[in-house]
Amino acid sequence: MNIYILTTLLSNGYTWSTQNAFIMIVCNIMCIGIGRYAIKTRSLGPSISILGLEGLGLPELLATTSLGHIIGAGTIIGLNSIGIIQ
């Protein structure tokens, strides 16, 4: 099967906007905040000093932002499907 035909059939027409970016940022910040206190076994590496979060290393940051992107994508798709955002 031609990949271009498949992508044409599966495209949904979502466009990226500032509303989508704001929702994604809020979801990521929320997950970082929750993950900072919820992760019990932390890595032994140094914490990320740029964020000012003591005890939050790179593995924890990657894990929480990955979860934030999953929640953000679900939120954007859900709000778009019920017509709240365009």
Question: What does the model show?
Answer:
- The structure is a single chain.
- This protein is mainly α.
- It has one domain.
- 62% of the residues lie in helices and 0% in strands.
- The radius of gyration is 17 Å and the shape is elongated.
- The model has no long low-confidence stretch (mean pLDDT 83).
Structure in a nutshell:
The protein is mostly helical and 86 residues long.
Q: Runs with pLDDT <50, length 5+?
A: none
Tell me, what's the shape? elongated
What is the typical, i.e. mean, pLDDT?
Answer: 83
Number of strands: 0
Count of DSSP H/I helices: 3
Mind summarizing the main beta sheet? none
Membrane topology: Multi-pass membrane protein
Organism: Bornetia secundiflora
Subcellular location: Cellular thylakoid membrane; Membrane
InterPro entries: PSI_centre_PsaK_sf, PSI_PsaG/PsaK, PSI_PsaK, PSI_PsaK_bact
Give the secondary structure arrangement, pairings included.
Blueprint: H1 3-10, H2 18-38, H3 58-81
Helix pairs in contact: 2-3
Please tag this protein with its features.
86 residues; mainly alpha; 62% helix; plastid; thylakoid; membrane; photosynthesis
